[in-house]
TrEMBL record:
GO terms for cellular component: nucleus. Keywords: Coiled coil, DNA-binding, Nucleus, Transcription, Transcription regulation. It comes from Brassica carinata (Ethiopian mustard). It is found in: Nucleus. Transmembrane segments: none annotated. The keyword Glycosyltransferase does not apply. Residues 1-61 form the MADS-box domain. The keyword Membrane does not apply. Its main location: nucleus. GO terms for biological process: positive regulation of transcription by RNA polymerase II. SMART domains: MADS (SM00432). This is Uncharacterized protein. Signal peptide: none annotated.
């Protein structure tokens, strides 16, 4: 048969208790060192005997640093828990306040719409009436201001369009004037060219030659050019037989 499970209880015999303490203490310190080396963990072990004697082990002999880290972690953990509790309480209070505020706003909205007026007193009804009059006055003032701004914008737009139309009319008139002036200059040039151009007529002489008489600038002159004199028989029409 196998060994039975040892029941854990206080050893009454002082000598046996001291021997067991020494053995278990050595084993515990050994295990602490092993887990520190194998797992790269920071380990701090503190043991007080029944007589008050201190036995300790710490990784790399940094007991104070490990204990300070433990204190910071414990303090921050407590602060976090306390902060979460405080925040949850604040959220509960804030939710209650917002809920009450929403109910008041919904009631005021119904009253402004003319609903649920039976529960209001005379003073509350008068206050509601004053609020409605003030709201209507503010709305009308804003409406008039918006209309004035719209009219002013339309007037500016109309003035800009009129200025643009006037500029276009001015350009059209200038172009028409230039066109008329150019037409008059063309007419004058054609008249002057027709006046300055010499006019010729054919005359016959005794010798049977035809001469050309030209008139220029109102002065008649007889131009007898050799190339322009032709025999009379060359000027007679010929008939085809």
């Amino acid at each position: 048969m196998g060994r039975g499970r040892v029941q854990l209880k206080r050893i009454e015999n002082k000598i046996n208790r001291q021997v067991t303490f020494s053995k278990r203490r050595s084993g515990l310190l050994k295990k602490a060192h092993e887990i520190s080396v194998l797992c790269d963990a920071e380990v701090a072990l503190v043991i007080f005997s029944s007589k008050g004697k201190l036995f300790e082990y710490s990784t790399d002999s940094c007991m104070e640093r490990i204990l300070e880290r433990y204190d910071r972690y414990l303090y921050s953990d407590k602060q976090l828990v306390g902060r979460e509790i405080s925040q949850s309480e604040n959220w509960v209070l804030e939710h209650a306040k917002l809920k009450a505020r929403i109910e008041v706003l919904e009631k005021n909205k119904r009253n402004f719409m003319g609903e649920d007026l039976d529960s209001l007193s005379l003073k509350e009804l008068q206050s509601l009436e004053h609020q409605l009059h003030a709201a209507i006055k503010s709305i009308r003032s804003r409406k008039n201001q918006a209309m004035f701004e719209s009219i002013s914008a339309l007037q500016k737009k109309d003035k800009a369009l009129q200025d643009h139309n006037n500029a276009l009319l001015k350009k059209i008139k200038e172009r028409e004037k230039n066109t008329v002036q150019q037409g008059g200059q063309l007419i004058q040039c054609s008249n002057s060219s027709s006046i300055l151009q010499p006019q010729y007529c054919l005359t016959s002489s005794r010798d049977g030659f035809v001469g050309r008489v030209g008139e220029e600038n109102g002065v008649a002159s007889s131009l007898a050019e050799p190339n322009s004199l032709l025999p009379a028989w060359m000027l007679r029409p010929t008939t085809n037989e």
